[in-house]
Amino acid sequence: MFQEFGKMLIGIGIVLTIVGLILFFGGKFGIGHLPGDIVFKKGNFTFYFPLMSSIILSVVLTLILWLFRK
């Protein structure tokens, strides 16, 4: 039981590390400024929703988790 919990914690840690690295270095590779990301500016207000970036990160994380389950 504890081994399964340990494996789960290691997997979560790896995924969080990968997501953190993607967020930290993502600007250099265009993540966060892709076509399909929604930006609304009016005066001193800016609303930003990274729709396409979120979809790509979701697909990548799904593939990584799928590989870990095999």
Automatic annotation (TrEMBL):
Keywords: Membrane, Transmembrane, Transmembrane helix. It comes from the Bacteria. InterPro entries: DUF2905. The chain crosses the membrane at residues 9-27, 47-68. This is DUF2905 domain-containing protein.
